[in-house]
Amino acid sequence: MSKIPLEGIKAISFGVGIVVPELGKIIGQLGAQVIKIEYAKQPDFMRTITPDPNNSPGFNESNRNHKVFSVNLSTEKGKKMVRELVKTADIFCENYRGDVMERLGFDYESVKAINPEIIYISSQGFGKDGPYSAHKGYGPTLCAASGLLSIWGQPEDEFGCGGSFPHPDNAAGWQGTMALLAALDYKRRTGRGQFIDMSQAEVAASLIGEAQLDFTINGRIQKRIGNRNPYAAPHGCYRCKGNDQWCAISIYTNEEWESFCNVTGNSGWMDDPRFKDLASRLKNVDELDSLIEAWTADKDHIAVMHLLQGAGIAAGFTMRAYDSILDPQMNWQKNIEEMDHPVAGKRMYPATPFDMADMEFPKNTPAPVLGEHTAEICRDMLNMSDDEIMKLKEENVLYLAEEKESS
Amino acid sequence: MSNEQEGALSGYRILDLTDSRGAYCARLLGDMGAEVIKIEQPGGNTARNIPPFAGDDPHPEKSLHFLYRNASKKGITLNLETADGLAIFKRLVKDADVVVESNAPGYMKSLGLDYEALKKINPGIIMAGITPFGQDGPYKDWKSSDIVDYALSGAMIGTGFPDGRPTDMPGSPGDDAVSVYAGVSIVTSLFVRGGTNSGQYIDASSYKASRLFLYPWGLVMWYSNYEADRPLPAGEGRLGTMIYPIIPAKDGYVRVVALTPGQWEALLRVIGEPEVLCMPEWKEFYYRIGNADIMYALIQEFSTKYTMEELAEMGHREGVPIAPIYNMEGFANSPQTKARNFFVELEHPVVGKYKCPAPPYKWSVSSCSIRKSAPCLGESNEEIYCNELGYSKTELASLKQAGVI
Which of A34, A144, B114, B228 qualifies as a cystine partner to A24, CB 3.0-4.6 A? Predict the structure, then answer.
């Protein structure tokens, strides 16, 4: 029995952007074979953000572990080849809006007619039905529409602006993966495939469930509270020495507070009536925060974290990519690996994330360049001869990357 | 009660020993149909004390956090630090498929309940340990919290306005990350076990999971500017609304995604093609970023004539994604939320009837939905201890007396 969890599982992906490619990357890390259907002349828009479509860092991260089949779906011959691939697939995933998949003949009903046990996941910004179902959904607009952005920011700002990253895209990639794997196990047990309709806006909304319940149960519309917490003080992100370096600190109990006062050499704060218990600290939180920032301001952010953690206090600096490469725990967990991409060259990427004692995971493979695996898939999966492949290339049905050995 | 239908994970039993971190993992397994038994110490799980509360009444059955993250679960009480409690837990492990726990590294081993011990009782058992920093390594005994998880995830340094402070993210992103990560690992292990009959140990940490769940691109984006013989590229900063502008509407704000030339032209059509913004230089994305203040002032004049919904509709028609920034009420009452029945009605013995967000997907064959409201303390004691393990009601009373349950 193989120790690679999803060995032998085949997925066809019509995913573009982030969510569905991420899902493909993750099941690829678990050993599934993932084939991305992408015509090189209408590439995944994520390739078009950079001048060279083969050197888009985001694309090259999210599309690792994919083989690409570059086929022109406006031709009947192209569609027929994809239908052949679908016949032996276990999983089909896509994130095209509206009726695109129907028009191509790869909506769930059409795919199911070819492969009745298929597990088909459709990931849409707003889900498959409802008045916004045809609206384009990008992470930043979904943060807005889910209510999250209204509470994500500092209270004194005109509006909350959230993060620079496209939440909930990656979260949705993981949520979709969990659903897909549960459906795969259900298929193993019952022989039944199914259709899963995921709404990325609902992924964002379901991660702030407490705030939603505060409205549905208490009728309270939560507001932005920045880095404060109504149940902990101090609780914030404090400026440290250096350029734009910070350390987050949270203290919930009196025990933690006393430990903090001792380890920072401010034992006088313990007897200060302004800070004697949580209620007092919350009441005088502005003064408290200024005192703490006066203490952190001339100290190294990483040293502050180590000092406080050593005293049993939750603290962590605002880590950047470069810090993660140097971090002892990151390295202990082997969270980062180097990979060589034919165009991008050697770069650092997040490593295979899984930590399951008795399993083995295949080596991650770099994201495909345009048309990279077209010929290989034709030969190995569709039993086509080189002549047939070249003929379809000339007819503009297939796009082939230039093969190194054929020069 | 909602759906009694079969789910993808129906037939599996999960023993949930988590506190606040990881509770959402077992909740997701329950939504997918697994039978989840939350095991709490006789005094109740500490997550029951997390505010806010229903009706702002600090009552152990009314924590919104507990209610949300423990729906779709049964609940029993059991003291693992007693000999009888340990023996009962081992009996439960015999017929369970998964144990999820969130104790500090080493605690389960100190009770004789580490994976090696559980495997002897049930070779097929899958055990997931959920912690802030992992079971091993230099940070394993460190403490964390939502804001600390977020700072270390790599995403917080990029959150907020450029000249402002890095800003926390609402909810519990580090918890959610590790919960879904552990969920993926558990379901994979169940799938594999179907062929091998053998279980698995899963080490799941927020430290590892949160950067993958929030922004794995951080590393590759920075590294794409790295060259071995050059000075290090600048570290990440906060981009605020430079890439994804927020503009005022008549009744609130909307967020716009206008990255490509096509999307920018569509945005111009939405706001009535004001001459001043139709000048060619505005077509350049970097010009717009460099002159964002002027651009906003110009856009504002036009955008405030329309409501958020009108702007979203017009954006959709013209080809530029625009979304209303809903508050909680706006989201709950939005036509999309209602059309998809995202909020389902639950009934809880103490809280009464209330509406709760459902899982973010709809499945065509097996059901994925909230099975029941969160358990009251010891709600399923009789069902599990008497009906299943065969204790009499008198024995149950003396176990309670002795502090075992």
Answer: A34
* Averaged pLDDT for residues B368-372: 96
The predicted structure's pLDDT at residue B5: 85
Chain B residue with CA closest to A350: the answer is B216
Instruction: Dump pLDDT digits (tens) for A171-186.
Output: 999 999 999 999 999 9
Q: How far is A114 from chain B (nearest CA, A)?
A: 18
The single-letter code of the amino acid at B382 is E
Could you give the CA distance from residue B158 to residue B165 in angstroms, rounded to a whole number? 10
Select the residue of B165, B240, B340 nearest A161 (Cβ to Cβ).
B240
> Could you tell me which residues come within 8 angstroms of residue A273 by beta carbon, excluding any fewer than 6 positions away?
A280
Q: Domain A10-207+334-406 in CATH: superfamily?
A: Crotonobetainyl-coa:carnitine coa-transferase; domain 1 (3.40.50.10540)
Contact criterion met (CB < 8 Å) for A182 and B354: no
CA distance A395 to chain B (A): 30
Q: How confident is the model at residue B196 (pLDDT cuts 50, 70, 90)?
A: confident
Alpha carbon distance, N-terminus to C-terminus of chain A: 41
Asked if ipTM goes beyond 0.90, one says yes
pLDDT value of residue B4:
58
Question: What is the average pLDDT across B54-74?
Answer: 98
Q: What is the mean pLDDT of residues B168-177?
A: 97
Tokens of B76: 């029993």
Q: Quick check: A148 contacting B, CB < 8 Å?
A: yes
Give the CATH class of B246-333.
alpha beta
Please tell me the distance from the alpha carbon of residue A27 to that of residue B90, in angstroms, as a whole number: 34
B336 and A127: CB-CB below 8 Å? yes
Between CA B151 and CA B167 the distance in angstroms is: 9
- What mean pLDDT do residues A82-105 have? 95
Distance CA A134, CA B282 (A): 28
Of B139, B203, B366, the CB nearest to A186: B366
Mean pLDDT of chain A: 95
Contact B403, B79 (CB under 8 A): yes
Whether B77 has a pLDDT exceeding 60, the answer reads yes
| A337, A355, A364: best to mutate for the B interface, most B CBs within 10 A | A355
The answer, for A304 touching chain B at a CB cutoff of 8 Å, is no
Q: Do B173 and A207 touch (CB under 8 A)?
A: yes
Q: Are A339 and A366 in contact (CB under 8 A)?
A: yes
- For the segment A327-385, what is each residue's pLDDT rounded down to a tens digit? 999 999 999 999 999 999 999 999 989 999 889 999 999 999 999 999 999 999 999 99
| Residue of A65, A165, A194, A309 to mutate when probing chain B, most B C-beta within 10 A | A165
Let me know if the fold of B13-213+346-401 is the same as that of B246-333: no
> Topology of A235-326 in CATH?
formyl-coa transferase, domain 3 (3.30.1540)
Q: What is the pLDDT of residue B318?
A: 95
Q: What are the residue ranges spanned by the domains of chain A?
A: 10-207+334-406, 235-326
Given a contact cutoff of 8 angstroms between Cβ atoms, the answer to whether B210 and B174 are in contact is yes
* Domain over B13-213+346-401 is classified CATH 3.40.50.300: no
